[in-house]
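User
New here, help please:
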Amino acid sequence: MSRKKTQPKKNVVPDPKYNSTIIPKLINNIMYDGKRGVAAKIVYDAIDKIKTKSKDEPINIFNEAINNIKPTVEVSIDTNNWVITNVTTKIDTLKLIEINNKYELIKNTYFMPIESKVEYYVKDARLTKWINRDLNVVMGSEKNFEFNNDIVRGFIQVQYFNHRINKGIDDKIFKE
């Protein structure tokens, strides 16, 4: 554990032209070799093109585009037992990962996981070709992948057993 203090989170200064905190983050991601001016010109030119081609405010269209590419996470909770049964992450309509959990009542008190199934999707044509070519070498004869054009669908299954319930542990070990 580090003895140094953690750095405080820096606040992003909003863009002076559009008063947006997303634009400086985009400029920082586009910036190469410290050329902030070049990156800013690229971003502002793109926003100006939006302005010429649309009747709406360009910053609203820009924000809508950014929101469309953010992943969404859906969590399903069994409220009778208060356990998470499913977690799904999507971008637009493309599912990225799905986790399904099954639970069992242990000692009539605790719901403990007995199985977790992870289903993941990777969209990468190069990865698909590599897996197609080397699947037997990497995974043996077992096939845990399905292919649909350039989307790889994989599976991971984890089973839990012999649960041990910790009792009498002082709560202070969980606090930092």
Summary: The CA atoms of residues 28 and 84 lie 37 Å apart.
